[in-house]
Write a structure and sequence with these properties.
mainly alpha; 14 helices; single chain; two-stranded antiparallel ribbon
Length: 393
């Protein structure tokens, strides 16, 4: 799909109307639809919610833009509703959690391979290992509470084994930060960082909302533990973003990010009904981008090419199993830790993280407890003996 941000105009805002029937249609099936259809749904809901957050910030900081931003937010609220309501009642909250973690793994693995900045690419690989371990812990919880195999959700695309153990994810806050990309960063770098930040925001908020509804004490503790790590991931990815960008510059990048992601989803979607939604919302977002573009020009008096280059879209996230790449990262980088904004070996980890970790893990780790008697192997997964499942830290 060949698109250019400066040339493709999309649908005018005054034509972007949806009824409740449009928004709340038939959901996907957790068994009959391909798992990557659900991955795209989860990803794009996260992007829409993050776009709404960006506009709320801009709304509070630019009086002249308020009427337009209010109109854009209303449309994107309805887009987010349409997307999120595609997840059906045949998914239990815990099965949806498995879907969230699969999304984080497969999307982050693809982004890590596309990212041209080697330092930020390592940042994607670093957090990838943690989401990969979260999938294993939640799979153990699914087995414990519902007696279900998580592979029914992941459909064999994603390995279910430990990586960097969740126990070690708990860092003192200053060690979650990264050096941000600069003003001359490639458009791909900007879109990658914003996409992953939005995805982690959504995952964090979902866990914070769904965790308290469980009656099982261990489930409640596990959601609390991993929600804290997802909050760290928001800081990790969010600190990749250039803090010197103005609110309207961030709005422009946000709209470009939505165009890029909808185009990638439309190009790869296997469900015709869902593909039609991606195509419709791509048309919407091209229209939104043109409005953000004009707002940027009128208020900042800058050439948008300074922010977006020539307007050509970078390569899309690849919605396919990233198993071989993830296995390589698990093998080579599980022992990495953080010291400030740098990646170091286990022995050089920032000392304040050791103190922090001892405090939060003082009563034990829910993630260790939930998987203490759990091991899952199959012909499509890494084959290990139960005693080998916990990788060396």
């Amino acid at each position: 799909m060949s698109l250019n941000l400066f040339q493709d105009k999309g649908m005018a805002l005054d034509r972007q109307r949806m009824s409740w029937k449009d928004m709340v249609g038939k959901p996907i099936s957790k068994l009959d639809d391909d798992a990557f259809t659900r991955v795209r749904i989860i990803l794009m809901n996260g992007l829409e919610l993050d776009s709404l957050r960006t506009k709320q910030v801009a709304l509070r900081m630019n009086a002249a833009a308020r009427p337009l931003l209010a109109q854009l937010m209303r449309v994107e609220q309805h887009q987010a509703t349409t997307i999120n309501w595609l997840l059906g009642a045949d998914h239990s909250p815990l099965e949806t959690t498995i879907g969230y973690e699969q999304t984080a793994i497969e999307v982050t693995a693809s982004v890590a391979q596309l990212e041209p900045d080697t330092y930020l690419a390592q940042g994607y690989r670093y957090a990838l290992l943690e989401d990969f371990d979260h999938l294993y812990r939640y799979s153990a919880l699914l087995d414990r509470l519902e007696g279900k195999d998580a592979n029914n959700i992941t459909q064999g695309y994603t390995d279910i084994v430990p990586a960097r153990e969740t126990w070690f994810h708990h860092r003192s806050p200053e060690h979650d930060l990264l050096e941000p990309y600069g003003p001359d960063a490639a458009l791909a770098t900007k879109l990658h960082a914003l996409t992953l930040t939005g995805g982690e925001y959504q995952t964090h908020d979902y866990y914070m909302n769904i965790g308290p509804v469980f009656a099982d004490p261990l489930a409640r503790q596990l959601y609390a533990e991993i929600a804290s790590v997802e909050s760290q991931h928001i800081t990790h990815y969010g600190s990749m973003l250039n803090p010197m960008e103005s609110p309207l510059e961030k709005l422009l990048i946000s709209e470009a990010c939505e165009v890029w992601n909808y185009a990638g989803c439309a190009a790869q979607e296997t469900n015709p009904r869902v593909r039609a939604i991606w195509e419709r919302f791509l048309d919407y977002e091209l229209g939104h981008f043109q409005l953000a573009l004009q707002l940027f020009k009128d208020n900042e008096r800058r050439d948008p090419a300074e922010v977006l280059g020539d307007g050509a879209l970078p390569p899309f996230i690849q919605f396919q199993s990233q198993r071989d790449f993830v296995r390589q990262v698990v093998e080579q980088e599980t022992g990495l830790r953080k010291d400030g904004t740098q990646y170091v070996g286990t022995e050089a980890e920032g000392k304040s993280s050791l103190v922090y970790r001892d405090a939060v893990n003082a009563g034990g780790s829910p993630s260790r407890t939930v998987s203490a008697t759990y091991s899952w192997t199959s012909g499509t997964e890494l084959m290990r003996e139960p005693g080998e499942l916990e990788l060396a830290a």
